[in-house]
Amino acid sequence: MDKLKPYLFDLSLEDLTSLILSFGERKFRASQIYENVYRNLYSSFAEMSNIPSALRPILDSEIRFSSLKPLSDLVSSDRNTRKILFSLPLLNSPKPAQIETVLMKYSSRNTACISTQAGCALGCTFCATGQGGFQRNISSGEIIEQVIFFERILRKENEKLTNLVFMGMGEPFANYDEVMKAVDRLTDPLGFNFGARRITISTVGIVPMIKRFADEKRQVNLAVSLHAATDELRETMLPINKRYPLETLIDACRYYVDKTRRRITFEWALIDNVNDIPSQAHELVRLLKGLLCHVNFIPLNPTSGYDGRESDQKRIDKFREILNKAGIPNTLRVRRGIDINAGCGQLQQAVTVNH
């Protein structure tokens, strides 16, 4: 069955080499295929003119080239944000899993927001993905193919991806091994050769994985979804806080900075009269004092399963003023793709497909 075939984007160069040798072919063919996939961005074996014509159908019958099937393609009214809904193979589930992936265009950069799970089990109250529940982990190849999908589109426009954020559907550190395999192949100098420092991985705060990530001393950036500065409030928003309360989480963040000497980013969705109040700002200052960090604020994006509203500008300004006076760097991000539900926290399984 097709689902049992090796999936091309799941294969490292070493894996691909072993497979090619098992076909009785010479080792260098694997490097050619790898380059065709990650450098030339070919979308089928048939396009690979440097591969013998007799070998191409063998590759086609023995290796699954693609796993993602586009179901919908939405573009925001300002034309700067594009969201694709993909269907994934059935595997062991009777219902097809789905993921959404977003491309955001700015004046000087193109950023892809990548999903790392189909759905999410962590249940953050204001996140549409969490509201929809968990379907399954996705493989390293299914993570990589999202990136390649948008890179192919941009290449046709004489552009390229400049930044990757693992901030789409799912919790990256709940699928840690596959995410890191994807990062390793995306940054492989022999393959896609994407700069590690242009990749950011976001977590809601799975403490053991933050420490493991720190110990591995990768050049990839780390962002933590904080959203509240007291346990009482954060537990009502992010259930993971009951397992890893703020003191434990911030200790892990300090461990990360001490180990890597890299700045950590904290994400904060501003919710009217919930976490935009001065007392939360003062508590946030207390939490982050002396830590090499940056706070990214974004007004809450609407979802059907949460009644909260985005903060107004006066409340945002007052909140940020408290951080500014304390010397804590912060930025207010512009919301993107809200009209197509492509903003932070809005991604979900949006289409029912009959098979």
Which properties best describe this structure?
355 residues, alpha/beta, DNA polymerase, domain 1, TIM Barrel, 2 domains, 10-stranded mixed sheet, two-stranded antiparallel sheet, 11 helices, disordered C terminus
Secondary-structure map:
Blueprint: H1 13-22, H2 28-38, H3 56-62, E1 69-75, E2 81-87, E3 98-105, E4 110-113, E5 117-119, H4 128-132, E6 134-137, H5 140-156, E7 163-166, H6 176-186, E8 199-203, H7 207-216, E9 221-225, H8 231-237, H9 246-260, E10 264-270, H10 278-288, E11 293-299, H11 313-325, E12 330-332
Summarize the structure.
With 355 residues, the chain is an alpha/beta fold. It folds into two domains: 2-62, DNA polymerase, domain 1 (Orthogonal Bundle), CATH 1.10.150.530; 69-340, TIM Barrel (Alpha-Beta Barrel).
Largest sheet, in brief, is: 10 strands, mixed
Overall SS class = alpha/beta
Mean pLDDT: 90
Q: What is the molecular shape? A: elongated
Strand order of the largest sheet: 1-2-3-4-7-8-9-10-11-12
Tell me what the CATH architecture of the largest domain is: Alpha-Beta Barrel
- Count every helix, treating DSSP H or I runs of 4 or more residues as helices: 11
CATH class bucket of the largest domain: Alpha Beta
Question: Percent range for helical residues?
Answer: 25-40%
The H-level CATH homologous superfamily of the largest domain, spelled out, is: Aldolase class I
| Proportion in β-strands | 15-25%
How many beta strands in the DSSP annotation?
A: 12
Distance between the termini: 16 Å
The total number of structural domains is 2
CATH topology of the largest domain: TIM Barrel
- Order of H and E elements: HHHEEEEEHEHEHEHEHHEHEHE
Tell me the Rg in angstroms: 21 Å
Question: Which stretches are poorly predicted, pLDDT < 50 over at least 5 residues?
Answer: 351-355
